Amino acid sequence: MTQTDWIQAIATCVLVFATAGLAIVAAFQDRVRGWLTQPKLDVNLKLSPPDCHKTSLKSITKEGVVVAEASCYYFRLLVKNTGNQRAELVEVWAAELKKRQADGSFKTVEEFLPMNLVWSHVRRVLDSISPDMQKFCDLGHIIDPAERPKFPMEDNPKLGVASDKAILSLDLEMQPFTMSHLIPPGAYQLTLKVAAANAKPVSKRLEVILTGDWYKDERKMLGEGITIRTL
Fold this sequence. Notes:
- By secondary structure, the protein is of the alpha+beta class.
- The protein has helices at residues 3-36, 218-225; strands at residues 41-44, 52-60, 66-81, 87-100, 106-108, 115-116, 126-129, 134-143, 168-170, 182-183, 186-196, 199-210, 226-230.
- Strands 4, 5, 6, 7, 11, 12 and 13 form a seven-stranded antiparallel sheet that branches. Strands 1, 2, 3, 8, 9 and 10 form a six-stranded antiparallel sheet that branches.
- The radius of gyration is 26 Å and the shape is elongated.
């Protein structure tokens, strides 16, 4: 092999190693960038306006005619992206419901159908949440018990709840005909999972205590009628 051949061989090896090195560096940079740049989701709930407040629930026909209306309290979660990258296709999954028993233990409500909650004013999977931004997600609502018969999917006689007692209706992506979205008075733990297409799921557990009492006064209802807090 001539000196020229040796030089060409060495140059080829150097080029191959350099190319491989650049590929490794690029791959490593992408991984580091992924570690440093990512969305991070968190869930909070404040049992006061504007997160939770008194409003009205209306049943409206396709023609826009209001056929039923009732006083209503709405409860919303605040989902925030504390990361440094936009969270894509964000959803909140109501994963499990447990009810407190007489001995103080919590037992899974077998009838509960796990399902996504709906985003406030959007009612579908949310396209995105930008860094340092937050969006409301509907957790549920309670209508005036006296008006409950006007809304078929807001009442379940099988629950045995008195006509003057409040029921919490979870705002799931659909109201199942099993009526498992209706929560009678009691103490509960609701497990939520918040995830995005480009973010790991985050679990959050809520304690919900519903006395069944209905108050026209917003402050009293949100203080005595129901309590919700993150655990």
